[in-house]
Amino acid sequence: MGEEARVLDLETSEESRTRRDHLIHDSIVDLYPLSSYYFGSRDALRVKDEIISDRVIRLKSNYADHGLRTCVEAVLLVELFKHPHVLLLQFRNSIFKLPGGRLRPGESDIEGLKRKLSSKVSINDVPGFEVGECIGMWWRPNFETLMFPFLPPNVKHPKECKKLFLVRLPLNQQFVVPRNFKLLAVPLCQIHENEKTYGPIISQIPKLLSKFSFNMMEI
Predict the structure, then answer these.
(1) What is the distance between the alpha carbons of residues 156 and 210, in angstroms, rounded to a whole number?
(2) What is the CATH number of the domain that holds 50?
(3) How far, in Å, CA of 2 to CA of 110, rounded?
(4) What angle do CA 116, 104, 111 make, to 5 degrees?
(5) Distance of CA 143 to CAs 52, 114, 147, 149, 197, Å?
(6) CA 74, CA 173: separation in Å to the nearest integer?
(7) For 85-126, what is each residue's pLDDT tens digit?
(8) Per-residue confidence band for 1, with pLDDT thresholds at 50, 70 and 90
């Protein structure tokens, strides 16, 4: 009995050590210099011009056809001046977005995000590229413009859910974006609580990343 207990203790200790090692590994993010990546352009992407009322109509139509709308977006990080920078798509010099988009019916979060990254910034699934954990979720309770980082308990049928995933980049990667968009590296210190410029979701990314440690890779 005592020998069995010692074996179980050893197994439990080893399992705990393994879990701890995984947690440490998952909490450390390697960031490669911006200069190690290639940026190009391709044909312009057609963008819908719509006012808020048009968007509400479109959301209602989508909800009637497919139910809850789920969007997935990527937080892509690079190193510049020894500080983490987020890659953001800029449209019309004033609108900032994370690369991503709506899932197809029955599509998983990860597969949908990989598809959207391929179509939006031409990222392909290469060695070292990894869609990591979901670091934040926002909900649209009704057909409104505002989304919240929580689902109110009285809301049984939300209209939209947006999920942010931390995506780990390899040492080398090509980014090719439509000509009517720019892909900018924006420092976390500039994004932090800057809702006026970046909106209520992007401006919260520095807080969402506060649990991670960044390893600035030198090449």
Answers:
(1) 31
(2) 3.90.79.10
(3) 46
(4) 50
(5) 10, 27, 10, 16, 23
(6) 15
(7) 999 999 988 899 999 999 999 999 999 999 999 999 988 777
(8) low
- Show the DSSP H helices in 87-215 as ranges: 109-121, 188-191, 195-202, 205-208
Q: Is residue 12 part of a domain?
A: no
pLDDT at 170: 92
Give pLDDT, residue 92: 86
CB 9 within 8 A of CB 193: no
* Mean pLDDT computed over 67-83: 96
Whether 63 maps to a domain, the answer reads yes
Q: Which residues contact 96 (CB under 8 A, 6 or more apart)?
A: 88, 89, 90, 184, 186, 197, 198, 199, 202
Contacts of 59 (CB under 8 A, 6+ apart): 69, 140, 143, 159, 160
Count structural domains, the chain. 1
Read off the amino acid at residue 182.
K
Question: Is 143 part of any domain?
Answer: yes
Residue 14 lies in a domain: no
Task: Give the domain range for residue 133.
Answer: 28-216
> If DSSP states are collapsed to H, E and C, what string results for 113-148?
HHHHHHHHHCCCCCCCCEEEEEEEEEEECCCCCCCE
